[in-house]
Every structure is written in structure tokens, then in C-alpha cells.
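FIELD: query
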Amino acid sequence: VHRLHDEFGQRYQDAGVAVVTINVGDSADEVDAVLNMGPRNYTTLRDPNREAFAQVATRMLPRTYLLRPDRQIVWFDMEYSRSSRRELRNAIRYTLRQFMQQAKQDSSPFM
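FIELD: result
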């Protein structure tokens, strides 16, 4: 979790990217023990009864989602490997480029 924040949350925070984690099934004490292992500059939500998780899946953690501000999923993976980090980095860059291009078009006086 800390690595995800370090690699992506800090790097892209000025562009509006934020890391939000959701712990599934663990007690508050277990979650706090993990979160206290390092600096915590991201939001962590808890799903102790797996109710929210059951709405999207039945197994396979960890899961990583990249969402646009309108909550549309633009990238998803069920692991956190070197290749998935590379793909996530590419997806973030691509998504940010799309938003920057759209913002330029929206602000153009000729549109």
C-alpha cells in the first residue's frame, strides 16, 4: 500500500491523482497495525464484512482500479507486480493526457 502511494500518489498528486485503499475483511486493529508501518498520506476505507467487495467480486485480492473523476473505471488489475505497475503508470499518463487535451478544447475560443 505504501509503495502504491509512493510510486503514484506522490508523483501525480499535482495532477489530481489520489490513492484510496480499501481493506477487505480485517479488523480495525489489523488494519491499523499495517497502516502504522509507514507514513500514511492516503485515505484508507474499511470493508470488514466484505459487503462492498461482494458487489464487485468474490475473490482475488489485491485489486487495483484507476478511475476517472466521473467514477468510470479506465484500468483494472488483480495483482501488484512490476508489469502491472508499469501498465498503471502508462494508464495514468494516457488518462491525464486525455483530460489535458479535453481541457484545451473546452477552453478554445474557436469551439
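FIELD: remark
The first strand starts at residue 20 and ends at 24.
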